């Protein structure tokens, strides 16, 4: 069944995800769990003991999608598909997370220097109490980077809200020797998988 006006809800504050949806012509309304940034997070994103990165990101995206649908129902908004996404960076099977300060950002970027890491972006589309999920995994290899370059990256890319302490669309693009997978997935929303899930619930990408 086609979705009225081909619209969805995007449960994300990310400007990058909004830009990527616009790129493939998807109309969206923003659905936020928290109305203000200074409210406590609704979902605890702390990894569980011995939880693999894949298990972690599937658990988080499933929880966020469920909570978003509940939020939609509570607010008595029109029932449209909700798109949820989450991105993590892993190195040697370890989730690096988002840096809380300059020291953590330096530590993360130093660990990525001259090495390959993985970027996992999971997406979920929930509609009428049914949920579908997909995972995009991309390998990114950095050249050796200096401490001066790391500080420049931290300063100009504003990395504190970014998984792995870098933005592929920022200065860190100059560090990338090789990428195998989805560029848009590293940016925060894998468009191949996103288009697939939206088409399955009746959002027509190609009209």
Structure description:
- 36% of the residues are buried.
- α3 crosses α4.
- The protein has six helices and seven strands; from the N terminus they run βαβαββαββαβαα.
- About 2% of the residues have low confidence.
- With 207 residues, the protein is α/β, with parallel strands linked by helices.
End-to-end CA span: 14 Å
What structural class should be given to the helix and strand makeup? Answer: alpha/beta
Shape: globular
Poorly predicted regions: 36-40
What characterizes the major β-sheet?
A: 7 strands, mixed
The overall strand count is 7
Percent strand = 15-25%
| Average pLDDT for all residues | 91
- Report Rg: 17 Å
Residue share in helices? Answer: 25-40%
Number of helices: 6
Question: How would you describe this structure in keywords?
Answer:
207 residues
Task: Give a nutshell description of this structure.
The chain is of the alpha/beta class and 207 residues long.
Per-chain topology:
Blueprint: E1 7-10, H1 15-23, E2 27-30, H2 53-74, E3 82-91, E4 94-95, H3 102-112, E5 116-127, E6 130-142, H4 147-157, E7 176-180, H5 183-187, H6 191-200
Parallel strand pairs: 1-2, 1-3
Antiparallel strand pairs: 3-4, 3-5, 5-6, 6-7
């Amino acid at each position: 069944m086609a979705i009225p006006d081909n619209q969805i809800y995007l449960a994300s504050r990310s400007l990058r995800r909004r830009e990527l949806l616009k790129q493939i012509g998807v109309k969206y309304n923003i659905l936020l769990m928290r109305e203000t940034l200074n409210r406590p997070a609704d979902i605890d994103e702390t990894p569980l003991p011995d939880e693999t990165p894949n298990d972690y990101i599937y658990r988080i995206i499933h929880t966020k999608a469920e909570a978003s649908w509940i939020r939609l129902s509570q607010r008595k908004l029109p029932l449209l598909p909700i798109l949820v996404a989450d991105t993590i960076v892993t190195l040697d099977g370890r989730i690096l997370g988002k840096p809380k300060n300059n020291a953590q950002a330096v530590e993360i970027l130093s660990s990525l220097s001259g090495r390959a890491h993985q970027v996992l972006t999971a997406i979920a589309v929930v509609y009428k109490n049914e949920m579908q999920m997909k995972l995009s995994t991309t390998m990114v290899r950095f050249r050796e980077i200096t401490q001066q370059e790391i500080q420049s990256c931290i300063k100009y890319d504003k990395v504190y809200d970014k998984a792995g302490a870098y933005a592929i669309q920022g200065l860190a693009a100059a560090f990338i020797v090789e990428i195998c997978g989805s560029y848009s997935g590293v940016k925060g929303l894998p468009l191949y998988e996103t288009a697939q899930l939206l088409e399955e619930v009746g959002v027509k990408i190609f009209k």
